[in-house]
Amino acid sequence: MTDYSEEQRNELEALESIYPDSFTVLSEKPTTFTITVTSEAGENDETVQTTLKFTYREKYPDETPLYEIVSQENLDDNDVMEIIKLLEQQAEENLGMVMIFTLVSAVQEKLNEIVDQIKTRREEEKKQKEREAEEEEKQRFHGTPVTIENFLNWKAKFDAELLEIKRKKMKEEEQAGKNKLSGKQLFEMDHNLDTSDIQFLEEAGNNVEVDESLFQEMDDLELDDEEDDPDYNPVNLDSYPQISERRYL
């Protein structure tokens, strides 16, 4: 006859010596305890962790123990479900033998795999970002390949924008033409315009400056010599009577 209590006590003593810092007894009847399992550190010292709770059934190890995950760190829901399935599989395979160490060891390996997966996932994400950055750089230099379809779309958009610009310009010119006053209208609105130049000269007096460079020297003017002019007909002034000078008092 199998002494289940003896086998259970012996296993508890072994587990306490194997996991001194993570093994905790919660109760004796029924025997319930927890073991915290932590993965090896990853590349950036990240770890994943879970705390497993076990309860012996009366006929353990001929019956599987009760187990559950009571806490976890850095594990997503899929990871938790995979660990539960792993415990079920290992418990069925080791039925009839004390199995807690086997179950915990299987979970330990699973956590290490998860850490490696995290590393691989991060590397893939990094490569993906690099590929996207390269593609964006190529796109910026090479642009979008021209096809008949996208050219026609671009041309339709361009023609519409050009037409809108022309309409705005015509509207502005039309508005500017309406607001522009003729010379007559300006004088009718301001009667001082017809005397402004005279008033300016009167106020300036002798201080009006003249730019002499605008006028040529007489010596620089190209005047035709009278004798060289074929149409020149000199008049004999002696043939005309002399006009006496008169003085008007």
From TrEMBL:
The lineage of its organism: Eukaryota, Metazoa, Chordata, Craniata, Vertebrata. InterPro entries: GIR2-like, RWD_dom, UBQ-conjugating_enzyme/RWD, ZC3H15/TMA46_C. The keyword Amino-acid biosynthesis does not apply. Residues 122-140 have a biased composition (Basic and acidic residues). SMART domains: RWD. This is RWD domain-containing protein 1. It comes from the Eukaryota. It comes from Lamprotornis superbus. Residues 122-141, 209-249 are annotated as: Disordered. Protects DRG2 from proteolytic degradation. Keywords: Acetylation, Phosphoprotein. Residues 10-114 form the RWD domain. Signal peptide: none annotated. Transmembrane segments: none annotated.
